[in-house]
Amino acid sequence: MTSANKHSWAPTALNKRLWGLLALGLLIHVSFGWLLTLSVDEAHYMLYADKLDWSYFDHPPLVGWIQWPLVAIGAPDAVIRLVPQVLWLLSCLLARAIALSLYLVVPGWSKPAQRQAAGLWAVALILLAPLMHVLAVGLLPDTLLMVITLALMWVALSLSHTPAPRLWVALGLLLGIAGLSKYTAILPALAIIIILLMRYRLRLLLQPGPWIALIIASVLVIPVFYWNARHDWISFIYQINHGTGGSWQFRRLLAFIGIQLVAYGPLLIMGAILAARHIWQRKAVFAASLLLFFLIPFVVTAYLSGGGGSLPHWTGPAWLAITPFAANALARYWLDGHHALIKAFARAQAIICLLAFSLLFFIGIPGVGQDQSLGKKNPIADLWGWDIAGIQARSLAEKLHIDSISVKNWTLASRMTWYSRPVKVFVLDDRFDQFDLWFGNIPAGSDSIFVNWSQMRFDLPTGPGGFESCTLIDQLDILRLGRTVSDFSFYHCRNWGATVAPQASGKSS
Fold it and tell me: How do the domains of the chain map onto residue ranges?
């Protein structure tokens, strides 16, 4: 290794690069946090905070609770979005801390130069993974699970050599918080149970620590069970039906793998493979067990993808779990002189990220798509204009003395409800969901402002069982850099007919 290369990996140089990477990530996230309106899920979970409850139809409550203080004081969306950005920063720092500590359980990863480089690579891998930026700008339950999964790994690593009482208390708190975040938190919980059983065997059950952790976790998740007991267990029924998806198809699994490759990057995957190979060769049993934090949720999600029952961001916490391992493997590979492939993959991922950021900013490829084919049909337009449309719908409702807004799909209702608060928003379909719990059914004989959106346009809800008539009263074009990227149509719909109320079966449509 040349003296110049040694100097580039000195602690001072690494610290400068570390803070540079973290600052770059935060700059990107703050910028898009101010620039874009809310996504479907973001608005839905902000409504959790606006309508505080013990739990909710499709998810446990923590994603709403954690935003409640900012929502309660009327903070702007961009300020509320600081919550996921802080969680992203914590994830980076936890991944780095674990990467620096893995030498304790993986032989051959103890060289100071490799450890310091691994800490930097852990942050770089997160920064270069395109989908991680989505979870860093918009707060989803998976954003919470990213931090919690890494914290559970840290506790598992600590318990492997120091089973102190405070660590069992921390484990119980983390498992309880995980249970308040997302139902799939059962997967990292399963991983840590297996890991600790492999480490301590059945004598684990004779120690007070695990039982203390179980009691603490059980107490923390009481709100979820309390709410479900009062609502006929609809969340659990919904999750079972939602997770099963449709008929299983291998091509869906292949598509899922392809999406994962782009979403998290070939560099992270290469590092994970190198790490697994090294652990296998060194027979590092406990380190191999820590890989369960990745393997269990990834395999389950991959299987569900074959039935159409998974989304790309569900594996975010799993990829975070393997990042410290991949970082060490890449650091070792780099210091051994293998630079070309790492540089190629890193550049490819950086280009993908830059392209994604450009598409978001320009709502398409700059200079391309001035026609309607890449204008109103552009899917990226989904993140623009909802704030204006919500205010417009509320203004029309107030002007015409109408006490509700209506849409045809819940994905339209979440943002319309957030931006038109406090007006009620009814979803005119036969699917029971959280909006039925919040607002009930639209009263028979009532009028409503019906909103149609160009990217998901529906037939007007008139006819038997619907409105008697609907009249177009306003049109809103959403412009970006001189282009019309979408439009909203507002109708005054009159005399809603009586319909059969949807049943709280918990079935997913």
Answer: 8-361, 379-494
